[in-house]
Amino acid sequence: MTAGRDDPLPRAVALHGGSGDINVAGRLDIRRAPRVPVTLPHRVGNAPAPVAARQERAADGRLWDAVAAGGAAVVAGLGGVGKTQVAAALAHRLWAGGALDLLVWVSATSARAVRAGYALAAADVTGVEDEDDRDGADRFLNWLQAPGQAGLRWLVVLDDVGDPADLAGWWPPVRAGGATVVTSRRRDHDLTDGRALVDVEAFTPAQAVDFLTARLRGDARRLVDAGPMAADLGFLPLALDQAAGYIGNRGIDCRAYRRRFAQRALDELAPTGVDPAGRLANGQHPVAVTWRLSVEAADDLDPVGLALPLLRVAALLDGSGIPRAVLTSAPLLRYLAAQAGREVDGDDPAAAGRWAEDAADAVENLRLLSLLTVDATGPAGRRPDGERPGGPDIAGDVVRVHALVQRATREAARRDLPGAQTWRQLVHAAADAVLAAADRAGRDPRAQEILRGNARTLIAHGGGDLWVPDGHRLLYGLGGSLRESGRVAAAADYFRELADTAARYLGPDHPDTHLARGKYARCLDAAGRHAPAAAEYDRLAPHRRGAPGDDDQKLVAQANRATAIGSAGDPKAALRIFTGLVRSRTRLHGPHDPRTLVTRANQARWRGETGDQVGALRAYDELVPLFERTFGPSEQTLWVYGQQATWRGELDPAAGVADLARLLPAQSALLGAHDPSTLLTRHNLAGLKGRAGKVDEAVGDLADLVADCERHLAEPDHPVTLMARSSLAQYLLLDRGDGPGAYRVLRDLVNGQTRALGADAPATARTAKVLTRIEDEYRRRLTAWVGARTGPGPHHTTVARLASDIRADADLTRRALTRLVDTGKLRLARGGQAGAVDPSALTDHARFQVVAA
């Protein structure tokens, strides 16, 4: 449809949204005496004028298409996105284009307001004014569908419908040539059923900047940081409009507004004062009030009183994606029940199930009021290739909340909750809910990543409340999740900062501070930084010995310390410590307790590392049936299988290959094909293949493993990646004699080791030494090539030809040339001018001359 065309209007359209700021102009004057009907075309009520700097948006086009198609539509969106303006723009466009005979605009905030608006229209078009507005409303609707009105082009806009029930019995007829547009924050089934849904969304970044530019009259001084300010406000039209008014009234720029936005409450940033009704001078509600009204409406829906506390929890989490499982978890159900003055009986599954349904209904009520959206990110149970299958699809159903809605909710909660204790209860309830969802998610990498994002956001908002009375488990769970996901370096950084934070809140000698330091040391060890980990454990040891508390935790700390010491190069010390730990575990828990069995398995490992491979294998042969009986088909059992196979392979590589080949499918099925433990098994399997004489197969497997590690592990310098590169380089260099291939792998390896372990780490130094030997060898070959030529030179060649002659690649050849030129042993020339060529800039096939010094 275009303005001015005579195409018939669709029969019924509903526009979901509305600011509620527009009222029907005039006052209904009840009279019994008839009057002359108005002449068409005619308007009843006043559609709001377009706001200054209005932007044409996708919703405008979608609504226009819905009107042209003749169907029904519901246009949805958060309060403040400009739903009323979308409806008004349509009305003005149709009226100005001569496409309407009758335009009726009604402020539909109640059923009575709807009837009053209809009665006013009836008086105009029929000349009859009814004493009862019900009669007038009926008269108007009957008039619209009377046979004499066939071909009449009309549009009825019902703005800001607060309750779909208010329209029961008062919908305009569905008729060719007529259209009904409803704006409402509600998206109930009764409102949307049979009507197309047209969502009104926030501005795009470009639209937001264009809007601000127009509102601030293109003043470049005022527009400094306009883009970042728009992003701060979530590109929400109402917030941007009020920010522009504030900037204009205060004589500041966008950058200054950003500073105030970061430091002040939203209520302090209104462009003008508010009247007793809570409205600004232009009739708008301040942005925070707009949502407060929606929250109150959602909280009044059944189950009454749950929407607000649930939104408060969501306001502390990551608004870009909160798993629904967090909002329906057992800890959150208990919190919601407490807010409602009731209890959840954990021993009554039926009662708990009803509370879970109530929580789900509260989420739906917030969705009905457009305060949040619910998105399914993918079919339940589907996982990307290589990720652990099965388990609850925590990541498959997420809730999204606009950042400004979250902020307004947090500010209101801090103001309205009675005392610091209730705010702390809210923070702890949210933390408990995230932990509960994380426990359900297991090793699902997608779900854990989403939950880590929520934990980070909650920690930022919770602040010191998560340290009362001591450190909440979520603080430690986030770092543990990072480590388990393969982000071992990031986990080490996290726990180092957490230890500093714990010392600040609780004191340096508090057990939770020591706990964070212990986890920091463990992550250092997992990242391959064994010596620093051992040193950190040594610093903690006196505190562990002297502190009261759990003997089990002290033994765990000793075991972690022993592992770090052994990995740092002292396997005998590690074996000695684990031997003592086995005695302690057996005395405290018995010989077949799971903790004793794990300690015995670690003792067997370090027995093998000291050279007693037969003793290590014998110990694992004894442990495997005990692990199977105690742990079942679990990660722990797979781990001990892997240890048994590896030590068997030390004595009989072919037997080890067979054992690891059987283990790998089970590990992939349980943990995922790209879990670090699975990738480590692939590394060990390739190594044993090489020792069994299958060098080509080992090299191919290791090359594939390096590629998979680089593609799937969360950190580029993960220990398994470094290990795989090292083994690949070893086989290329020693077994294949492929110096250039080994050199390429070793260069990546030494760069990764430098980043992950430090330039002074022993492993980094060993790799650098091998690189130097390779470079020395190819410089020797290059010098011999020059010396073998007759006469003093010059010798004409190219990089590609020279690389072939000395059995190198182009990069290694350029490096050898550069070093020999820098040390004065060779000179390069072009056009007879020695020294005019930069070896590192030579293309592969450019001719140059090599001159012996």
From TrEMBL:
Gene3D superfamilies named in the record? P-loop containing nucleotide triphosphate hydrolases, Tetratricopeptide repeat domain
Q: SUPFAM superfamilies given for it?
A: P-loop containing nucleoside triphosphate hydrolases, TPR-like
PANTHER family (UniProt xref)? AAA+ ATPASE DOMAIN-CONTAINING PROTEIN-RELATED, ATP/GTP-BINDING PROTEIN-RELATED
This chain's protein is named: NB-ARC domain-containing protein
Q: Which organism encodes this protein?
A: Pilimelia terevasa
